[in-house]
Amino acid sequence: MKKLILSALIGILVLSCETSADSVDSTTAKVNQDSLAKIQATQDSVQQVELTEKIKADYQKSIALRKKYIGFKYLYPESADFIKENGSPVTLDGTDNNKWIAYFPKGDFTVVSNKKTDQFENIYPGRFPDLKSDITGPLSQLIGKKMEYDKYVEIVSSIRYGSPEQLNTGICINKDCTEFYPKGNFTTVAFMEFNDNGNFVTLKKISMGKIPDLNDL
């Protein structure tokens, strides 16, 4: 009888140890999962901050580049000075009989040049073979111009660039409105003015991609 009792106690003790070990393993695994999740969240947050900072830097640089070089005639001797300052151009895919797409490594930007006029039509930081399809360069020439609403929506057309998605809150009446055009892949900030004198729009900012906080850049 004593042997049976002793065996039973040993069995209970072993089972208790195994259960306790399983519980420890389960707790350790949960802690590890939580730690990995926190590390991943931190890494994602850092990457998002870095991406936001890059977008801000590229946006600010694009404003300066476009103000200085859109309309620039790439002809000698001006072209020689341009190469001296920004490096020898690298012709990119997308170049055709009408457009020259070139990357200038020293300046670290890409240009779209009209082959008939030799004028720069677009320019943006970094290496962008697809810059020819970007419309923000030409549309940036509208920045600061007060236009009648109907004329504005004719140029910044929802038919051509997709129905705009409003990115800020509230009704866009007599305030800045941030909108993303999906087919054109660009974001605008425009002041929408509606009063007794008429309906007007003043484009304030435009950038490639979807940038909800463009008005803060």
Uncertain runs are none
Largest beta sheet: strand ordering: 5-9-8-7-6
The portion of residues assigned to helices is: 40-55%
So how many helices? 5
Radius of gyration: 30 Å
- SS strand fraction: 15-25%
- What number is the mean pLDDT? 85
Shape assignment: flat
Q: How many strands in all?
A: 9
Largest sheet: 5 strands, antiparallel
Order of helices and strands: HHEEEEHEHHEEEE
Count of domains: 2
N→C terminal distance: 84 Å
Structural class, from helix and strand content? Answer: alpha+beta
Name the descriptors:
single chain, 217 residues, alpha+beta, 5-stranded antiparallel β-sheet, 4-stranded antiparallel β-sheet, 9 strands, 25% strand, flat
Could you explain the architecture of this structure?
This protein is α+β, with helices and mostly antiparallel strands and 217 residues long. The protein folds into 2 domains: 63-133, no CATH class; 136-216, no CATH class. 42% of the residues lie in helices and 25% in strands. It has 5 helices and 9 strands, in the order H-H-E-E-E-E-H-E-H-H-E-E-E-E. The chain has helices at residues 2-69, 78-86, 136-139, 149-155, 158-161; strands at 90-91, 99-104, 109-114, 119-125, 146-148, 165-166, 175-181, 186-195, 198-208. A 5-stranded antiparallel β-sheet has the order 5-9-8-7-6. A hairpin with a 4-residue loop joins strand 3 (109-114) and strand 4. The chain is flat. 20% of the residues are buried. The model has no long low-confidence stretch (mean pLDDT 85).
